[in-house]
Amino acid sequence: MSRPLRLEFAGALYHVTSRGNERKAIYLEDADFQLFLDTVAQVCERYNWVIHAYCLMTNHYHLLVEAPDANLSLGMRQLNGVYTQLFNRAHKRVGHLFQGRYKAILVQKDSYLLEVSRYIVLNPVRAAMVDHCIEWPWSSYGFTCHQQQAPEWLAVEQLLSLFARERTDAIARYQDFVMRGVDKPLWTEVKRQLYLGSDSFVSEMQSKIEKPELLSEVPFVQKRAPVKAIAWYVQQCAGNRNKAVQMAFASGGYTQADLSRYFGLHSSTVSRIISGQSHK
After folding, report:
1. CA distances (Å), 118 to each of 16, 32, 97, in order?
2. What is the pLDDT of residue 234?
3. What is the distance between the terminal CA atoms of the chain, rounded to a whole angstrom?
4. Cα-Cα-Cα-Cα dihedral of 157, 158, 161, 166, to 10°?
5. pLDDT tens digits for 122-156?
6. Alpha carbon distance 205, 194 (integer Å)
């Protein structure tokens, strides 16, 4: 069976999952869960992602990702690739960590954002790992309920605003909404292995595949400022090469290969600089 097409356009919303190779654990200790979330934060900063909900299970994870810059595949390559490197280094192992390609379902935001966010945080409850979502520390549920200070990349206020204007009321309604979804199926509504939405939504998305020029249309308000030349970062960093490399990479405008060519460095050296392991 052929693999579903990857459809990327400005503001697309995806439910993303990725499983461990041979269904093995991708987190062995609490430090691994936190390391993954730190990597998510870096990806969100670089690729302008917004996360509406997440849940990290033992051998897989769920993310509800909004990509204003139509760059899901680029961000996922960094997320799984960087985390694999860090995980392997921490546990003195080599080889693949994840099982093949990640899976991404394109979600109709107006109709299904809440449904998918609920499904995601209920995973530990459905798996009988905990009795209530709040007992699982590695999901967005606690942040959404304001039990902890949410990270900048997690769109807590945006999600709560869909329930009520007053925060306390919104949290109460969110909690009730989540718990009413324990036995509610969702993925039976997925169409063509790719879409979660109405028939008109599916038709609209199919038209984007058939007319690929539409995929490059990015609304002005969602566009980032033009990427500055690498020389600008060198100048700003007063000749500090490593800092310039890190800033240029973080801008989202340059790949490691671009920086390797510009500075005349081996790709492994650039990788170490970006990860903060090189101090020369």
Report:
1. 14, 24, 27
2. 84
3. 49
4. 20
5. 999 999 999 999 999 999 999 999 878 899 999 99
6. 10
Strand 103-107 versus strand 12-19 pairing type: antiparallel
pTM equals 0.76
Q: Which amino acid type is present at position 243?
A: K
* pLDDT band for position 251 (cuts 50, 70, 90): confident
